[in-house]
Amino acid sequence: MTTSTRGASAPAVLVLEDGRTFRGRAYGAVGETFGEAVFSTGMTGYQETLTDPSYHRQVVVMTAPHVGNTGVNDEDPESQRIWVSGYVVRDPARTPSNWRSRRSLDEELTAQGVVGISGIDTRALTRHLRERGAMRVGIFSGEALGDEAALLARVRAVPQMKGADLSGEVATAEAYVVPAIGTRKFTVAAIDLGIKGMTPYRMAERGIEVHVLPATATVEDVYAVGPDGVFFSNGPGDPATADHPVSLMRAVLERSTPLFGICFGNQILGRALGFGTYKLKYGHRGINQPVQDRTTGKVEITAHNHGFAVDAPLDAPSDTPYGRAEVSHVCLNDNVVEGLRLLDRPAFSVQYHPEAAAGPHDAAYLFDRFVSLMEGQRA
Questions:
Q1: What is the DSSP letter of 294?
Q2: Which tens digit of pLDDT belongs to each residue from 38-71?
Q3: Do residues 104 and 89 touch, judged by C-beta distance below 8 A?
Q4: Of 124, 130, 292, 374, which cross-links 228 as Cys (Cβ 3.0–4.6 Å)?
Q5: The pTM is what?
Q6: What are the DSSP E strand ranges found in the chain?
Q7: 17 vs 21: CA distance, rounded Å
Q8: Mind telling me the catalytic residues?
Q9: What is the DSSP letter of 118?
Q10: Cβ(25)–Cβ(52) under 8 Å?
Q11: 199 by DSSP, 3-state: which?
C-alpha cells in the first residue's frame, strides 16, 4: 500500500481481478492499495470492523449505504490500528454526530494511511461479488491512477487469500496479561492468532485471568501459566496453512484441558480433529447472521467475519482421535458449519464472534459455557 494526503475530491477507481471497474472519489488516504474484495452486511459497528485483525489484507465493501455517521471514538477499537487494506462506501457522512465522536471516519482513515473509495454503486459491487465470489482488487487514486489494463495486471499479480499464512503478521510479539475483574477464579492461556480486544475482556468479566500468548507459543509456554483452560482466537488467512496452531491444539486435546476456539480457532479445531477446510465463495461478514445452536435449538443473530469453513458431516457425530465430535452450530442461510463440540473431552468452538464487538449479545452464553467446562474439570 502506498498513500499520500487526504483528498476527498480526488477521482478514484476500483479494479476487480475479473476486469470490472467502478469509478468514484477518494475516501481516506489517496494512493493505491490491494487485497481481497469482501462485503460486510452490518449497518453499524464499522469501527470494530476496521480494527479487527481478521480483516488483514482485505478490502471491505460496506453494504449499508451511509457510513461514518457516528465518527470515530477512542473506546471501541478492537486493536491498536486499522487492519483492513482498503475501504469502500457509497455515501460517507459529511459530519459525524455522536457524543463519543472524537474525529471523522475520513480523518481516521487518512491518518492511518488507509486508501478508500466512495460514491460507487456498492449494491452492484456486492451483487457482483455474490455471483462471482470474493476476488482480488485494487483501489487507485491521485497519482496512482493510470491505464486500466496496467492497473488490472497489477491486481492480478497480488497473492490470493487461499494459501495465505497471515496470523503471525497480526498476533502479539510478546505475551501479556488481562487481569480478572474482581476475584480471580480461573486462568486461561489465550493463543493470539488475531485476537480482538473485547474477547479477553469478556473472559475477565467472568473472573478469568487471561494470559495472551503469541501465535508461535509452544506447549511449554501454554502450560507454564498453569491454565485451567486454553483459548484459540480469531485471525486472518487460510487455516490450511496453520500447521503450528493445529499441532499445539492437538497437544492441548491430548491433555484434556478445557478448550474454546472462535472463528479461526474453530477452523483449527476442525483440522486438529481430522476434518478439512475450504474457501467459501464470498464468506460471511456482518453482524446479522442467523445461527442455530443445535444443542438447544435456539437461533442466534451473530457477528461473522470468515472466508473459510470446516468440512464436517452435519447429520451424525464423527469419530476422531480425541473421541466423538459433532457439529454444534449451523448457519441457517447456507448450512455452513458454525461450531464443533467434542462429546468425550471438554472442547468446543464456534465460527462466529460471541464477544459482540461489533454485534448482538445473543452468543455471550458461550463464555459461560467455557467457564462451566473449567468448573467441571476442576470438580
A1: T
A2: 999 988 899 999 999 999 999 999 999 999 999 9
A3: no
A4: 374
A5: 0.95
A6: 2-6, 11-16, 21-40, 58-62, 66-67, 86-88, 91-92, 115-118, 135-141, 176-178, 186-191, 208-213, 229-232, 259-262, 276-293, 299-311, 318-320, 323-331, 337-342, 347-350
A7: 9
A8: 263, 353, 355
A9: E
A10: no
A11: helix
